[in-house]
Amino acid sequence: MNKNLLKENILKNVEISNADMNKICDHFEPYTVQKGEFLLTQGSICKFEGFVLEGCFRVFTLDKKGNENTLYFAAKDWWLMDLDSFMNQTPSDLNMQALENSKVLMIDKSNKQFLYEQLPVVEKLFRIMSQKSIAAWQRRVVRNHSLTAKERYQYFIDTYSEIASKLTDRQISSYLGITHEFLSKIKKKKE
């Protein structure tokens, strides 16, 4: 699998020599995931951080009543992980499911730790990526508390149109924190 997209993603965050870039990329293993396949299920330990080359994943929880609550989607050029489970090697609360045939580059904890020790730029890279991720989560929480469901839906469609086109209404409503029926009403009013 070509790792050029991973290299481009890294370069968005840090300046790095070609030699160091190649060392980093050499520690990522390619995986092909079929539509519907799970990379992670609740209760198992997350043993990877992943970078999506192709396809789309849904990251969600399943509550005691069987309701799915989508935390995020990871499409091409996005990172995929359960940071808590990965860092602490504790059972995950998350499920990661491929919504279409997908290709992912994955790194395990020992390889990531090796890179931290060998290349100081890797610490900087993942610190910057973590900060960006926290900022994105914060923006989402603010939107969820300050926007109406209709405004959240419109924001999602406008901002993530490529991802939205791959999703069912049930998956979108799960992400927005509304019922499928309420999303249907929102969509009917827009027509």
Automatic annotation (TrEMBL):
Domain called Cyclic nucleotide-binding: residue spans: 16-109
Protein's UniProt name: Cyclic nucleotide-binding domain-containing protein
